[in-house]
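Running this now, will post back.
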Amino acid sequence: MIKKTFYNLPEEKRQRIIDAIMNEFSGSPSEKVSINRIIKEAKISRGSFYQYFDDKVDLVEILTRTFWEILIQGVYKAIAESNGDIFFTYERLFEIFTDFSKDKKQKVILKNLVRNIKANDDLVSDYLLNRFNGFSEFKEITKLFNKEKLKYKSDADVECLSQILTQVLKNAIFNVFVISKPCEEVKKNYLHKLEIIKNGALE
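Update: finished.
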C-alpha cells in the first residue's frame, strides 16, 4: 500500500519519484523493474523508498493512477459536453488513449501494462485483483449516462451496455499499444463497432 508519507512529500520531490518510476517501467518489463534504479534516479535512499511504498505492486498503482485520473477527468468532461451520451464518451475515451500513444514513454508504459494484463503478469494482476478500486468508481459513473434515447432504461442495463463498450475499447487499445496496428485503422474499426452497437441500443 502506498503510504501517507508519500502523499505528504513536497510536490517537486513526489513528482521526481513518479518520473523515476515511469522511466523504469518504460525501459523494463514489470518483472525486471529495479527498485535500485528507481531510488538512484529519484535521489532517495532505500530506507526512504520503504517509508513511501510497501512493494513493487505499489509502483504499478502509481502508474495506473496517473493514467486513470486522466481518463476519469476525460469521462466527466465528455459526459458534461454531450449531456450524458454514452457513445460520445466512449469515442472520447479512445481519443484519450491515442493521445497517450503520441508520447513515446507513455506509449511504452501502457504497452507493457496492457501486455502484462493480457499475460496475467503476477505484479500487474496482483494490483488489479486486490487493490484497484477504479472499476467500482466507473460503475458509479455509468449512472450519469443519459438513458432517454436508449432502449434499455435501468441502471443495470446501462451498466451492461458500458461493459460491452469497454470490451470493444480494450480490444482497440490492445491493437494500438501491443500489436502496433495503425491508429487510424484501429479507430475506423472501433467507431464502426460503436455504430453497430449504437444502432441496436437506441430507440
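The mean pLDDT is 87. More later if anyone needs it.
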